[in-house]
């Protein structure tokens, strides 16, 4: 007679048990008790009374190539039509060998990636070896499956290096985890994909890859109103990660790229005249 | 939007799936393998959105391994199919609701008999010779019914699957370019990408 209780299996249950045993310092967030009344004007939260309905525009991208992985992100945070910041750090440095990108809810991404960092360090101390990228991303997936209907909003990429090489995973709040070579996430991702798919090759050199990442983010920020600010570029290689560019203003990029084509960059290429 | 379809022949079972993962208007990935290998002679093609496919697949795979370990190492296709069905059925009135994915379970028993089972998210189970999950049903059942005959050979089976893929690429609104096809015979599982 086969006798098992299916509720003891499944990722959500595993996560909750481990949480009580190991991690005492970070408390799980509790639901807000107060609903704020919406105001008119620039502080109005779009989507009505829901506190967790922020629009977060972003473009983040990552791709695997022969020298490792390149991550490039923009730096704009917007709340509806109000730009709350142009200097957000959307690449989260989990530890010296893992990076996470942020898209969707900033708080959700920051908190859960910090939680993941805690878990990675605890694992390393307990087991004497670093957590692999596959395992770290799987752990995050387990958390997000557990919170599936709670309104978390995260579309992040986990990229890192371990003994088997450099790996890139896409994880979102539905609990989906995908391993792949090219990902772009955020409201500007479609524009970035256009540039990325067109010029991507596995055997890009580091300089070419950095240039491709910068260009793809620039094009996304140009067309997507919710992306902008500066471009930050990180490179993951077998010894960890390096910050290649800390912040290149996309406005400067616009005029630089226009100049390369012999244009002024004022948007008047069609030379429309009214009379 | 996943297409999973399959066929049972004289001594083999084929299950094919499309490779795309879509998110609103974007195709995030084109090479995702949606057919899970349960053991050397059983495969389970799962169709569902988001994490459901992945997490239910893992649940089935690990529980299947656990039961085999507990009971001596081998489960035949009929036992496996009923086991998977019971996992679906136990979830339907649970707190989280039914597992939002459908599947096609196929394989070959140790005596060489092939079987193909159609499984539904509410716990329906039906042994079939040809079938599909998702929108692929509408495009392929006519073709599969027309082309099927008893005791197909492996080569004939692969030809029919290729015709099905061509039909989906011709008529289905959603572009599905890459398909992963897995064939189970007494010798084991063979994988082709089309």
From TrEMBL, chain A:
It comes from the Eukaryota. It is found in: Cytoplasm; Nucleus. PROSITE patterns: PROTEASOME_BETA_1, PROTEASOME_BETA_2. Keywords: Cytoplasm, Nucleus, Proteasome, Zymogen. Its main location: cytoplasm. GO terms for cellular component: cytoplasm; nucleus; proteasome core complex. GO terms for biological process: proteolysis involved in protein catabolic process. Component of the proteasome complex. Component of the proteasome, a multicatalytic proteinase complex which is characterized by its ability to cleave peptides with Arg, Phe, Tyr, Leu, and Glu adjacent to the leaving group at neutral or slightly basic pH. The proteasome has an ATP-dependent proteolytic activity. Belongs to the peptidase T1B family. This is Proteasome subunit beta. It comes from Paramecium octaurelia. The lineage of its organism: Eukaryota, Sar, Alveolata, Ciliophora, Intramacronucleata.
TrEMBL record, chain B:
The keyword Glycosyltransferase does not apply. Keywords: Cytoplasm, Nucleus, Proteasome. One of its GO terms (cellular component) is cytoplasm. PANTHER family: METALLOPROTEASE TLDD, PROTEASOME SUBUNIT BETA TYPE-1. Pfam families: Proteasome. This is Proteasome subunit beta. It comes from Paramecium octaurelia. Coiled coil: none annotated.
């Amino acid at each position: 007679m086969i006798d098992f209780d299916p509720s003891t299996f499944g990722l959500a249950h595993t996560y909750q048990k481990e949480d009580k045993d190991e991690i005492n310092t970070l408390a799980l967030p509790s639901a807000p008790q107060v609903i704020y009344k919406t105001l008119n004007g620039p502080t109005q939260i779009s989507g009505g009374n829901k506190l967790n309905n922020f629009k977060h525009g972003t473009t983040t991208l990552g791709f695997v190539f022969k020298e490792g992985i390149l991550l490039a992100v923009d730096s704009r945070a917007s709340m509806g039509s109000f730009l709350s910041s142009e200097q957000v750090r959307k690449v989260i440095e989990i530890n010296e060998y893992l990076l996470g990108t942020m898209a969707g809810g900033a708080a959700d991404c920051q908190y859960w990636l910090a939680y993941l960092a805690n878990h990675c360090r605890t694992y390393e101390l307990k087991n004497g070896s670093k957590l692999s990228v596959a395992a770290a991303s799987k752990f995050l997936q387990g958390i997000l499956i557990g919170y599936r209907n709670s309104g978390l909003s995260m579309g992040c990429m986990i990229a890192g290096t371990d003994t088997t090489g450099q790996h890139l995973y896409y994880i979102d709040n539905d609990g989906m985890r995908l391993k792949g070579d090219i990902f772009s996430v955020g409201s500007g991702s479609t524009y970035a994909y256009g540039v990325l798919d067109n010029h991507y090759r596995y055997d890009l050199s580091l300089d070419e890859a950095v240039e491709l990442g910068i260009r793809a983010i620039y094009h996304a920020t140009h067309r997507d109103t919710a992306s902008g600010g500066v471009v930050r570029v990180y490179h993951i290689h077998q010894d960890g990660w390096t910050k290649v560019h800390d912040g290149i203003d996309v406005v400067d990029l616009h005029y630089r790229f226009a100049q390369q084509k012999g244009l002024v960059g004022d948007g008047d290429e069609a030379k429309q005249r009214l009379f | 939007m996943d297409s999973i379809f399959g066929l049972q022949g004289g001594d083999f079972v084929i299950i094919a799936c499309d490779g795309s993962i879509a998110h609103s208007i974007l195709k995030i990935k084109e090479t995702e393998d949606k057919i899970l290998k349960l053991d050397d002679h059983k495969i389970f093609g799962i169709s569902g959105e988001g994490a459901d496919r992945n997490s239910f697949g893992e649940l089935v795979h690990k529980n299947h391994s656990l039961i085999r370990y507990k009971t001596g190492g081998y489960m035949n296709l009929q036992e496996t199919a009923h086991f998977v069905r019971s996992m679906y059925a136990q979830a339907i009135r649970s707190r989280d609701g039914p597992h939002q994915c459908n599947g096609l379970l196929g394989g070959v028993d140790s005596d060489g008999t092939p079987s193909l089972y159609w499984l539904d998210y509410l716990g329906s189970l039906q042994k079939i010779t040809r079938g599909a999950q998702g929108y692929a049903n509408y495009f392929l059942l006519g073709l599969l019914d027309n082309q099927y005959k008893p005791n197909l050979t492996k080569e004939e089976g692969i030809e029919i699957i290729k015709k099905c893929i061509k039909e989906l690429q011709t008529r289905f609104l959603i572009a599905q370019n890459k398909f992963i096809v897995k064939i189970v015979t007494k010798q084991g599982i063979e994988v082709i990408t089309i």
